[in-house]
Amino acid sequence: MRSIYTKTLFILLLNILISSSLFAQGAKPIAVAAKVRGETELKVPGGDYAPNLKRGKQINDKDWVRTKDDGYIALMFIDDKTLLKIRENSELEIKAVRSGAGLDKSIQMAFGKVKAEISPQFSGVFTISTPTSVASVKGTVLWIISTPDGDQIIVTEGTVTVTNNESGETVTVTVGQTVTSNPDGTIDVQPTPTGGVPDDPGDDDEGNQIIIKLENPDGDTKEVIIDY
Q1: β-strand 102-118 against 126-129: which pairing, if any?
Q2: Among 91, 49, 43, which residue's Cα sits nearest to residue 71?
Q3: What is the mean pLDDT of each run of 10 residues along the chain (228 residues)?
Q4: Is the residue at 106 inside a domain?
Q5: Backbone angles phi, psi at 218, to 5 degrees
Q6: pLDDT for residue 223
Q7: Torsion of the alpha carbons at 80, 86, 90 and 93, rounded to the nearest 10
Q8: Burial level of 108, CB count in 10 A (0-12/13-18/19+)?
Q9: The domain containing residue 106 runs over which residues?
Q10: Structural domain count of the chain
Q11: Residue 124 near residue 118 (C-beta atoms within 8 A)
Q12: DSSP for residue 48
């Protein structure tokens, strides 16, 4: 009961902050950079990549993030605490549109390696798209590894539906299974081998804390620290 209360309070607080007049005019954030390490970049619609994404930075619809050789970003969506743990040498676009009190979320991966800890999606399906596949998720934990040679999607909790873009073939993947989806249209589900799950990049001693910088229309800023 306490964990449910804590999560509800967290989400309520974040949404209050997001809708607060403390924020400058413009697009309202859909996610926050909870952790950042190494060389990272952020690109807003119509702009170029800017270096040094900061912890606590708000992420808006259609922003792109990119990590270099030593980079790591953990993004938390503000409506339900869904986490994306983005490992080194990855690039993806973050999309979300408001649907009632929540967000309909989707990720467009150009390439890379991401762990998604997706909270149950009550208003829609969370989708992760790559050049090869589309993974549709209601609430689960999975890894997706995308390269020009195809995708590997490793499910550690819940169930995922994966469709190959070339053939249109769809498979269901559950706990302990890995799907391999290839550019030629083939798709195959096998048990995840021992050692087949990547290391979780979030296992560190940084703690679970977000520092959010709020800015009003006059450019004045204020930091709010939230434990999660």
Answers
A1: parallel
A2: 91
A3: 42 48 58 95 96 92 97 92 95 88 89 94 83 93 97 97 98 97 98 94 61 57 57
A4: yes
A5: -85, 0
A6: 56
A7: 10
A8: middle
A9: 2-129+198-227
A10: 1
A11: no
A12: -
- Cα gap 209→163, rounded to integer Å: 36
Tell me whether residue 108 is in a domain: yes
- The answer as to whether 163 is a domain residue is no
Domain membership flag for residue 159? no
What does the alpha-carbon distance between residue 90 and residue 79 come to, in Å, rounded to a whole number? 24
* CA separation for the pair 191, 173 (Å, rounded): 10
Please state, as a whole number, how many other Cβ atoms lie within 10 Å of the Cβ of residue 30.
Answer: 23
- Reading phi first (left if > 0) and then psi (alpha if -120 to 50, else beta), residue 6 is in alpha
Q: Output the CA–CA distances (angstroms, integers) from residue 93 to 56, 107, 130, 209, in the order listed.
A: 18, 6, 10, 24
Q: Are 96 and 126 in contact (CB under 8 A)?
A: no
Task: Record the pTM.
Answer: 0.82
Tokens standing for 99? 């649907």
- At residue 225, what is the residue type? I
- DSSP one-letter code for 139: S
